[in-house]
Design goal:
Layout (H helix, E strand, L loop, with lengths): L1 E2 L7 E5 L5 E5 L2 E6 L2 E7 L3 E6 L5 E2 L1 H9 L4 E4 L5 E5 L8 H10 L2 H25 L5 H7 L10 H14 L12 H22 L18 H6 L4 H15 L5 H8 L5 E4 L2 E4 H18 L12 H6 L8 E2 L1
Parallel strand pairs: 2-6, 3-7, 6-8
Antiparallel strand pairs: 1-2, 1-12, 3-4, 4-5, 8-9, 10-11
Helix pairs in contact: 2-10, 3-4, 3-5, 3-8, 4-5, 6-8, 6-9, 6-10
Length: about 325
């Protein structure tokens, strides 16, 4: 078991060793191997559980307690990409009314919401390139061309410009590939879990996306709302790959998990990424109910913070 989170109240538990058993004991998640306890952590401090290992078993009572707290359990493939997410059926106390408003939202509203999300993502990408001293003006030009629903697919055009400057001319974003792609997969998995938790806590239905609408994707809305935060993972993955190599080892997992506690500018104050995700999801839910769009979208951190992501000292422990 690896405790790879960055704060006492938002811990990501990573299960990467085969044959572990997860159970609940007096308010703790307990990890055992061959009947012997090897670690435990308070359930109230867990933001999510990520399982990579084969042969992992768990008790139903543990899964129930994690669901009560809105902590997702993410099952991953060998390339660290999520294959399944277990989430609670109930979240926000008035989720029935909020979900009905979500279902009833008109297409123009949905398209405008997606435009704002894409704008925030490309703005974050531009800030990242600027922080690393790469040409960023073309992305600002693209932002001005984003239409309702992003009908001209500026998001994809921005990605084609962004990735070579961020990761090198030879880089191709491929979820099935190894190397830095595996680092990105792991970082995005943590971000997706945190976003899914925020979506459910805000009383929204995670299947009903703004843009992502694949029938097999049970967390389409989480995939939508995490988009503006992805460049933070990119920064950390770039730094890790250059300084420590592309392996998704304990150090890399700890560093990537720290991102959910990164403070982002939010109005006149700062707020951790995990809280910013909840504020974004809540603002979308309120917008659905009011039929008036008012999204709480993230602002880019300062250049020094962006270039430093991935290089923080970790204080987690591995078992």
């Amino acid at each position: 078991m690896q405790f790879v989170a960055s704060t006492d109240v938002d811990q990501i538990i990573d299960i990467a060793t085969d044959g572990r058993h997860l159970s609940r004991e007096r308010g703790f998640l307990k990890v055992s191997e061959s009947g012997m306890e090897i670690g435990r952590t308070p359930l109230d401090q867990i933001a999510g559980v990520i399982v990579h290992a084969h042969g992992t078993t768990w008790s139903t009572s543990l899964l129930t307690e994690l669901a009560k707290r809105g902590a997702p359990v993410v099952l991953c493939a060998s390339n660290h990409a999520p294959q399944s997410v277990l989430m609670p059926l109930e979240g926000y106390h008035a989720q029935g009314a909020r979900m009905r408003a979500q279902w009833a939202a008109k297409s123009p509203f949905i398209k405008q919401a997606w435009k704002q999300v894409v704008t925030a993502k490309v703005s974050m990408q531009a800030a990242v390139l600027q922080a690393f001293g790469a040409p960023h003006a073309p992305l600002h030009g693209m932002i001005k061309k984003i239409t309702s629903g992003d009908t001209t697919n500026i998001e994809a055009q921005a990605a084609r410009y962004y990735w070579p400057l961020m990761m090198g001319d030879e880089f191709r974003r491929d979820q099935q590939a190894e190397g830095v792609n595996a680092l990105l997969n792991y970082g995005y998995t943590i971000l997706r879990a945190a976003t899914a938790r925020a979506v459910v806590a805000a009383g929204l239905h995670p299947t009903i996306g703004l843009y992502h609408s694949n029938r097999s994707n049970a967390f389409a809305l989480a995939d939508d709302l995490m988009e503006p935060f992805r460049p933070l993972v990119d920064c950390a993955a770039r730094h890790l790959a250059k300084e420590n190599g592309p392996e998704v080892d304990t150090h890399a997992k700890q560093v990537l998990a720290r991102l959910i506690a990164l403070d982002l500018p939010f109005g006149e104050s700062v707020t951790p990424v995990s809280v910013a995700l909840l504020k974004l999801a809540t603002s979308l839910g309120q917008s659905f109910e009011a039929a008036k769009l008012n999204l709480a979208l993230p602002q880019p951190p300062d250049p020094l913070t962006l270039t430093g992501l991935g290089g923080q000292q970790t204080n987690g422990s591995g078992k």
